[in-house]
Inverse folding.
């Protein structure tokens, strides 16, 4: 099953269970100051869960574009982390609850008319004291008790708003995919047990003070990773080999004249370019522009990381613009507006890449000298003021400084960096108030 077929099969399955199929919402949240970018299928539906607004139908299903950057440094290093991914979600707004949500998830995953995954390879987790979910998994679905794990951190939330205990489904991909540790089990950070489905029993509303108020109605929020499920169905060692990402790896490998699968270091860079390529195209398509703050900075950081990983593979010339066509080739069927905005997306990416290349060559040269000096002096910490100078004078992103230092076994003296940053803020504030004084005179 291709990624496109899987997305459609999921939407159609839940349409057959009386869900209204809606297109993905934009990555830019509406009326939700707690989020910079949409990072879950449920995020656009918060007012439906709380009862503030009434949905067109009490059951909705979507495949939602999502951006999450909390794990950005893991991208390319694991089989499953991304900054951009698509989240499959079936939602109940005060309609069905645990019994139906669990039964339908299982039916879609294991029934031979749908995904036909082997039931004996699936494990489930539940919130520590969720005896109701335990009973359904054990008695209705017949999952053996030893494959139902109670977990304290099975509680799901994003920003403020609706949240609740959750129940996840994992696939055991086999010992050969594991870390080999004696206590490798569901929840281990390695690639053996892959979480593919999360059912959130949305029963609470969290406010800004961190208080949890029970919601008037019980709801279902689902988060199932399209790329992860595709990797299982397509029997690939990671999401990056699925048809949702591999054409980007092929493009980047060709552009860099390297071969995928030959070196861990190069593979990480190819995967970063592939992942970040999808993110930047979809973000710009949804109206985000590179800038130094907010979601614009998320985009800028992603694009700059892609350029740097290209350079790590020896790509001295710009390479991001042709990648737009490859992304649209993969995602264009699901998100037709991307093709309409193709030229615009290329223009933004081209300008930003060019601008960053200038910054990068100046900053890299200076950072290279700083690293060489430290190594010669047998030191492994870069003074914060030096990193700040790179950031302040050359516009060199400090996250990049930290990453490059880490690759050379050097850490950044964070305190000094923050001190210098605060001093600079103070100076800027003083300069602003001087100007105000002048203006008032
Ligand atoms: N909203 C459920 C999830 O992101 O897993």
């Amino acid at each position: 099953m291709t990624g496109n077929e899987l997305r459609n099969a999921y939407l159609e399955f839940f349409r057959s269970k009386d869900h209204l199929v809606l297109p993905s919402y934009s990555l830019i949240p509406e009326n939700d100051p707690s989020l910079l970018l949409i990072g879950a299928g449920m995020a656009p539906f918060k007012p439906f869960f709380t009862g503030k607004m009434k949905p067109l139908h009490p059951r909705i299903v979507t495949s939602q574009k999502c951006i999450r950057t909390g794990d950005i440094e893991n991208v390319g290093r694991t089989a499953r982390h991304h900054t951009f991914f698509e989240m499959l979600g079936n939602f109940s707004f005060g309609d069905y609850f645990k019994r139906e949500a669990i039964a339908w998830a299982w039916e879609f995953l294991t029934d031979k008319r749908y995904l036909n995954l082997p039931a004996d390879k699936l494990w489930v987790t539940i919130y520590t004291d969720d005896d109701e979910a335990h009973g359904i998994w054990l008695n209705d679905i017949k999952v053996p008790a030893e494959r139902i794990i109670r977990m304290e951190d099975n509680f799901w939330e994003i920003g403020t708003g609706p949240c609740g205990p959750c129940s996840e489904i994992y696939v055991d991909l086999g010992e050969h995919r594991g870390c080999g540790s004696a206590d490798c089990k569901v929840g281990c950070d390695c690639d053996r047990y892959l979480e593919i489905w999360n059912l959130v029993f949305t029963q609470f509303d969290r406010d800004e003070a961190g208080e949890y108020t029970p919601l008037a109605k019980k709801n279902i929020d689902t988060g199932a990773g399209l790329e992860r499920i595709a990797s299982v169905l397509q029997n690939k060692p990671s999401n990056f080999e699925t048809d949702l990402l591999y054409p980007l790896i092929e493009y980047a490998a060709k552009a860099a004249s390297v071969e995928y699968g030959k070196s861990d270091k190069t593979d990480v860079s190819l995967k970063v370019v592939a992942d970040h390529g999808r993110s930047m195209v979809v973000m710009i398509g949804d109206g985000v522009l590179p800038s130094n703050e907010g979601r614009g900075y998320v985009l800028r950081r992603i694009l700059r990381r892609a350029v740097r990983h290209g350079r790590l593979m020896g790509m001295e010339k710009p390479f991001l613009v042709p990648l737009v066509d490859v992304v649209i080739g993969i995602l264009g069927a699901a998100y037709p507006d991307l093709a309409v905005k193709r030229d615009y997306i290329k223009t933004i990416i081209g300008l930003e890449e060019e601008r960053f290349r200038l910054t990068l060559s100046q900053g890299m040269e200076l950072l290279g000298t700083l690293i060489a000096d430290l190594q010669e002096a047998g030191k492994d910490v870069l003074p914060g003021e030096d990193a700040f100078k790179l950031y302040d004078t050359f516009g060199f992103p400090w996250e990049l400084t930290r990453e490059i230092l880490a690759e050379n076994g050097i850490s950044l003296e964070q305190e000094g960096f923050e001190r210098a940053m605060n001093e600079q803020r103070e100076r800027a504030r003083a300069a602003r108030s001087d100007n105000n004084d002048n203006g008032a005179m």
Summary: Residues 40, 42, 156, 198, 200, 221, 223 surround glycine (CB under 6 Å). The first helix runs from residue 3 to 15. The chain has 14 helices and eleven strands.
